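Re: weekly structure request thread

Next one in the queue (847 aa):
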Amino acid sequence: MRPECIKAVTQAIGRPLTQPEIQGIENRVRRNMKQLAQTDPAWQSKSAADRLNEAATKSAKDLVAEADLKKKRVALTILAHDRIESYMQRFPDQPLEGLDRLLAFSSDGKSGIQSIESATRAIRDDALSGMLDVIDVTKGKFLGLFQDEAGNLALVRELHGEDSGNAAAKVAAKQFKDTAEQLRQRFNRAGGDVGFLDDWSMPRDHSQVKVARDQAQWVSDHVKWANRGKYMNEDGTPMNDQQLTEFLNHAWQTLATGGTNKLEPGNAAGNGMRANRGSESRQIHYKDAESFIAAQKAYGEKNLLELLTGHIGGAARDIALVEGLGPNPSNQMRYFLDAGQKATDEAKPKLADKTAKQRKRIEYLYEEVAGTREPPASAAIANGFDTYRALNVASRLGSAVITGITDQGTLGLTAAMNGMPVMQVFANEARMLNPANATDRRLAMRAGLGLNQMIGSLNRFGADGLGTTEAIAGRAAKYSQTMASKVMQVSAMNAMTAGGQRAFGATMMDTIGSMTRRLKDFSVMDPVDVKYLERLGVNETDWSVWRLAQPEDWRGVGDQVLTSGSIYRIPNADLVPLARQLKTTPQRLKDQAATKLLGTVLDETNMAIIEPGAREKAFMHGGVQRGTVKGELMRSFWQFKSFSIAMMMRHFKRAMAQETGWGKAGYMAALMASTTVLGGMAIQLNEIASGRDPKNMLDDGALGAPGLRFGAAAFLKGGSLGLYGDFLFSDQTQGGQSALAALGGPIAGDIESIFKLKGTAADGNVDSTGGNLVRLLKSHTPAANLWYTKAATDHMIFHQLQEYFSPGYLRNMRRRARKEFGQEYWWEPGDTTPDRAPSLGAAVGGR
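Done, posted below.
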């Protein structure tokens, strides 16, 4: 490093430099010379001394900025430390309980704080609500079954700064760029360090497996696709083919090894600050949109919508973590886990084992919330099981919409618990489900409501696979995931779920908006309302900001709907007095208030229309690695049980948190009564859709009281355990599975079905092997179980095949229905058309 450069840097930072610092600055100067060569058109015409001086000056400024950032991060870390410590002190006997509640939503209302999980979801959905045109352009045609290649290419062109001539793509590109920039700025306000890059267009995606297959081919392709203007030498001259090839070979090593080539033996990995995430240089630059698309097809593993929404989701998670835990969340969490465990062990040494288990559960929960779970041990094993589980969704949940009517029970109960007009919720639900009325749905989506269903999430059904396209197994996983998503779509399950979520969320936002118009501050509120808001984690600062926002008029849905958009439209000048008082900024106040509002609404929405969250996933999958046979078998065991787990972990916990015995009993009574009645309706509707008459609700069986057996089955159905209700009528389900196989999940049932292909003594003299095999194949045929086509496909296709391969099979089916379930068929098995309509009188013992 030249003396004049050292002098310039010394003057900038105000002290002498050490030798290691000089070496580091030399490396920094070289990097800056390359960056300046890319951005300064006159760079090559400058003298070598001028280039060095400019690069040195920029390096000095960078050092000053980094020093300032370091001080800022220290301050933010201290503030986060004090905030977390203060919160843990609310639970003096169980300090680890505070960490648990800080990480994930707890339904008992005792947290008094918004969890990091809730903040992540709120930030993500608020961001996605500003990208609806992006989703419209990328989601494809015919319910998303086919990608809109032209639309995708047009959007990629716009994102790369090219004119596509497509007005919709132009709008969508601006939406994504604006949203990504807003998230970048918010991340940096919390201590992040992601610089603005003029040439950054969109996230990249490289499959480690695909990249690793052929180094020479990958490098050759990227030499062809490279934006040569971004690959410069220090003197400002473009790299020649040999230099670029050498550079790309180094890049290939990093991508193909997943970064392990950079590890130094003996040094721990993975402890870098979360606040540094995203600050690494983007090393791969494509010359145009076509090159990017070609690279994605050859070496990527995600489609365009997954790339863009994945970037938003990752940014939201990082923001929530650094805002909640400070710039280095993992270190902060480790410190407080150690401190909490130590304090508990010292106070209760006899319970050390229990405390250790509690800590382990919190570690699993943190992995789920922070997204730090280990990658699959084997992508092939993980993809294989993902394919199987997604196929189960596609083939077995086509009638889930019938069971979904039980959501109305939790919807009404949660609305009542939140002081909302219950009938208004149901009225809004009808509006959201009206196919001729897209306006209300669009308003709700722009407020961040019901977006999971729009982007094709299968979170509710336990099909959260890798979504990769690696080799044959990966492509099968991808296609089966897509098929599962589309079956949920065409069955109307997604529409029903989203309709309920949007109706509840809109009504809650209207209720809160109305309260902010009537009530100035906590001092004039009813103590019950104050306690309710504090349980949700809403404080007086949040309330003060909410009151400054102007609610929106959504006509019949609500005329005082308070949204995050309402909050962000508050003039900064209106927030300056409050910001000065709290020593913060108007923008920070808006961020916190908007996230608190949407996070609160989404938390309660997921109580009303249950979707499993981080707590349920950590309970089911914590400590079991993906991509191992044990881990995948465990995930398969839990498939289709996540809803029931969430029901118990959320509503039962909320019931037990009521302050009085009568309150507990009242909550449980309301929950069980509503879901049981609706569960009974679901049972009967499913029987009719299957070609059978309704079950006799008055049949006492061996339980001694008329209706008790059906009531118990309806209760189980209301809790999404309707499969197990079949055992109240027989020792097997109507699909022929034993109780043990049904309890083990679809994979256990399939294994039993394979071993029982030869049939049982109950089949008489019928060789049921062929019929059982057809039944097994049908249970893995996508869309075969759609509620509005199930009876037709059964009778015109599958029954015919079963009888053909096993003569007498259908006779045994009818006999078993009469003997063990007391039912007749309104559409006889094997008949191509029904002889009569369903006998509704059978529900009360008639015929």
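The chain has a mean pLDDT of 84. The CA atoms of residues 692 and 825 lie 4 Å apart.
Next request, please.
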